[in-house]
Design brief:
Blueprint lengths: L1 E18 L4 E14 L4 E6 L12 H18 L6 H11 L4 H19 L3 H4 L7 E3 L2 E3 L4 H13 L5 E5 L5 H15 L4 E5 L6 H13 L4 E3 L7 H10 L3 E4 L6 H9 L5 E4 L1 H4 L2 H14 L2 E4 L6 H11 L28 E2 L2 E3 L12 H7 L4
Parallel strand pairs: 5-6, 6-7, 7-8, 8-9, 9-10, 10-11
Antiparallel strand pairs: 1-2, 2-3, 4-13, 12-13
Bound molecules: [(2S)-5-oxo-2,5-dihydrofuran-2-yl]acetic acid and magnesium ion.
Pathway: Aromatic compound metabolism
Family: Belongs to the mandelate racemase/muconate lactonizing enzyme family.
Keywords: Aromatic hydrocarbons catabolism, Isomerase, Manganese, Metal-binding
Length: about 375
């Protein structure tokens, strides 16, 4: 049985402004969830979003309020012994929507379950197929020269050798020229992708993607509005360069519909957008059955959400486009006793039980939002 559910907001400045078409981030807010069982086993989960309500339908504040008002009382009211699947069935039946909050709670419950079994979380999700995941870096300073210098530094440090560029906030030609300049500066061996974060109309997509394809760009992420899945389908059919669904992908149901419509070559699987780690694995299975390639996405989570995602992605049979699990590296503060291990362009998936990380609770106490 569960004894307590605590939800904590932690605001951490980013190492530099992170410029997307929907907002410019200077801070990331982590919603940390700590669930404790009657026997004293502790599980942690995390939810984040990008720029309050700029990116998605849930904000850090709504996640916290809904966990405290609905999820926590429900968990604490469970008196009969329920396993994880039965508990989550009850949550799904009682609470609509709220995918990010559900993901945070599910992560904490799975952390507990894996700790009770003394297994890494990946084994509870079906078993890991890899111990390391390739991790790209997003260049989003908004300045071409700064982005080139940042990319060169990352390559030299052996931290990242694949880059995603955030575009869509400037006039189209300005953005395209910026991307091509970076591609030229970094050379043929470095994979460059773009994320338009749904900023372009269909006509802009046609012009922009044609130029980006000709310029050697490898992947075009969510170029058009979330609802415009017909546009995404037409772009996927029209261009050879890979088209990826990100914001349009909101869990297994949408994965099924997008696959049915042939709306994307690649799915950006995100644990929060999917509504949980189990659902993210279901999205990956649908993609596999439909012949769609996979990419491990992020909502720029801190270390808890990032490593939870890594456990899920480590179970995917194929991860053709790698991952973007760099969230913690964008933050100026560390909330783990030992930071996540990034080396040789990869993130190491821990072997210890549960999430396999140790939380620095003193640090969280120091950083938590007080009012
Ligand atoms: C997004 O839309 O992909 C992920 C990486 C990044 O830089 O922004 C996020 C959101
Ligand atoms: Mg994206």
């Amino acid at each position: 049985m569960y004894k307590s559910v605590e939800t904590i907001l932690v605001d951490i400045p980013t190492i530099r402004p992170h410029k997307l078409s929907v907002t410019t981030m200077q801070t990331q807010t982590l919603v940390l969830v700590k669930v404790t069982t009657g026997n004293g086993v502790v599980g942690w989960g995390e939810a984040t979003t990008i720029g309050g309500l700029n990116y998605g339908e849930e904000s850090p504040e709504s996640v916290k309020a809904n966990i405290e008002t609905y999820f926590a009382p429900l968990l604490l009211s469970i008196k009969q012994p329920l396993n994880f699947a039965q508990t989550f069935k009850l949550i799904r039946k009682s609470i609509n929507g709220n995918r990010f909050a559900k993901c945070a709670i599910q992560t904490a419950l799975l952390d507990i379950q894996a700790k009770l079994l003394n297994l890494p979380l990946s084994e509870v999700l079906g078993g890991r197929l890899r111990d390391r995941l390739p991790v790209l870096w997003t260049l989003a300073s908004g300045d071409t020269d700064k982005d080139i210098a940042e990319a060169k530094k990352m390559i030299e440090l052996k931290r990242h050798n694949i880059f995603k560029l955030k575009i869509g906030s400037n006039p189209l030609q300005h953005d395209v020229d910026h991307v091509i300049a970076i591609k030229k500066a970094l050379g043929a061996d470095i994979s460059i992708r773009v994320d338009v974060n749904r900023a372009w109309s269909e006509l802009e997509c046609i012009s922009g993607i044609q130029q980006l394809q000709d310029g050697g760009i490898d992947l075009i992420e969510q170029p058009c509005a979330i609802e415009q899945t017909e546009v995404l389908t037409r772009l996927t059919q029209r261009f050879d360069v890979a088209i990826m669904a990100d914001e349009a992908l909101t869990g297994p149901d949408s994965a099924y519909r997008l696959a049915h419509q042939h709306a994307a070559d690649v799915f950006a699987v995100k644990v929060e957008q999917s509504g949980g780690l189990i659902e993210a694995c279901e999205v990956a299975k649908i993609a596999k059955l439909a012949g769609i390639d996979l990419y491990g996405g992020t909502m720029l989570e801190g270390p808890i959400g990032t490593i939870a995602s890594a456990h899920a992605f480590s179970t995917f049979e194929s991860l053709a486009f790698g991952t973007e699990l760099f969230g913690p590296l964008l933050l100026t503060e560390e909330i783990l006793k030992t930071p996540l291990q990034y080396e040789n362009f990869e993130l190491v998936v821990p072997q210890a039980a549960g999430l396999g990380i140790e939380i620095d609770e003193d640090k969280i106490e120091q950083l938590r939002r007080k009012a």
